[in-house]
Amino acid sequence: MLLVSFVALAQQNDSLLLQEVTITSSRFEQFNTGIKTQTIDSVSSIAYQTQSLSDLLGANSQVFIKSYGPGLATSSFRGAGATHTAVLWKGFNLQNPMLGEVDFSLFNVDAAEKVTIQYGGNGALFGSGAVGGIIQLQSAAKYQSGLHASVGLQVGSYEHLRKQTAISYGNARWYSTLKWFELDAQNNFTYTNTFLANKPRTRLANAQLKQTGIVNEHYVKLSNNQELNINLWYQFADRNIPPTMSVPLQKSFQQDESYRITAEWKLKKQLVEWMLRSAYFDESINFQDPSNNFMNGNNQSKTHITEIETRIRMHENHYLNVGVNNTYSIAFSTGYGGWKDLNRTSLFASYKTQEFIKHITSTISLREEGVNNTFTPIIPSIGLEWQAQKSIKVFGNISRSYRVPTLNERYWITGISQNLQPETGWSEELSVTIKKRLHDVNTSITLTGFNRTISNWIMWQPIGANWAPQNIKSVWSRGLELNGALSATFQKIALSYTGNLNFILSTNNQTALSNDAAINKQLIYVPRVTQQHVLTAVYQKIFLTYNQQYTGIRFISTDNNQWLDDYQLASLAMGKTFSIKQYSIVWSAQIQNLYNLSYQAIADRPMPGRHFFTTITIKL
């Protein structure tokens, strides 16, 4: 399967092409006009299919992943915070209602068939939390695909062992798939402890990880114009939390468990399409630290989401999308003193046309949301795309975004009156894409400029003996993003290159604190400069990929007087597909941190040196 994707990309032997996955257009795809998006290519998706979403995004996108070593990994889009990234699965936002974040280390790439990234928020389409960017995990029915099964095994450094299996069946009216995986890793790598005076080599302790997950999807054609799909995603992780370089051995651990169930009914009649969808998420986080009982607790949340949406084709090039969403969350934490809830109801609408001026597409979207009987300001968005020439496209977007306080921010008992206001802001972006074929080389280049302000940014601050969330600052983010791609075939060898360069300033414009040294300073853990370069070669049934990333310095103090050094990471992946009778056997191997660099992504959190993975998958 891995090689098949590479060969399909290179447009070689037609018999090896992957079966096309047809995904019904969602409002994410149809009404995000003017916003820069990226779909992770099949090469990268398959190469990283046995790894976490944080690994995939960190190596193949412009999303900055903040990794705490084995375990927690959060995201930052264009200088935004971890609570500003929406993650969509089956059209539902997976941000935890208590934390407002997503831990990307818990999401496995093979849980979805397609990963699409939207750079820049769009609160008009997806509501609270879609401020910095959106990541969509997609999959679709493959009717009439017959019976397919696969088993796989991955082994790697530091006692890494991953087992997986998948089975699917599709006929004319029904498609079902079941995926299962189990991961066990010790993560006991050695590192240079730069905190100690003599910088000794130290073995990371208390870093064991056990993880298992199941994804089960069912699609049924009720009639020629009706479809029903029901989906289950269960996941459990039991992970020890390793100490920092400056802390003696600790025995803290965290258990994360989630049940996600969704259902969607679709009806299409001539020019009108109806969609009714519902979801139930049951999540728990059990954190235990014997050295600090104050932080211990089993936190639970339950979320019920119901959404109805209709899409109307009003004319040949005019589309209207209208819907209503209700999201009800209830959670328990010892920090709340009991169960607390949050009820959000929103109305949203989008209008798209391609007829105002030739070669111009425009979309206008609006959203109004009520939160516990308090209404947010109207959230608008307008996007334009202009196909200036066959090879040149200009596109841009202006939108308002917002984030309501999470359950933790609202109800955590601090002894301090909070009266938190929602975070609000505006974002603008403008892009130019040029695509040309020069001799036998396909070229593409995109330049994007963006600007975003966020007011009432919520942060937890020490106040006396307590910590409390406060609306303390306004943040101004702006920057440039450059993307380039080349591809060609020479004597049956398919070669491709993709690269990007990002320059981001994300500064505190104002704070609620007097004489704050953070004014006009770069936010902590937001690098000003990042780069990525990926080279891929495919020859018949063999592939080779080289990936190199540069991460600039990151400040770790708000006054910018302390920072972490910049670093460059490289990785190498290779593989081959064998065919034996009716079986397809795919072997692949990866070398991560190819040059054995000692670095820190987060202060005092050690990262592994050179390490290896090898995977074998048998498909029937």
Number of helices: 6
| C-alpha Rg (nearest Å) | 24 Å
Shape: globular
User: How many structural domains?
Assistant: 1
CATH class: Mainly Beta
Name given to the CATH homologous superfamily: TonB-dependent receptor, beta-barrel domain
Structural overview:
The protein has 620 residues and is mainly β. The protein has one domain: Maltoporin, Chain A, CATH 2.40.170.20. The protein has 6 helices and 34 strands. It has a 22-stranded antiparallel β-barrel. Strands 1-6-7-4-5 form a 5-stranded mixed β-sheet, with no helix packed on it. Strand 25 and strand 26 form a beta hairpin. The longest helix has 9 residues. The chain starts with a helix and ends with a strand.
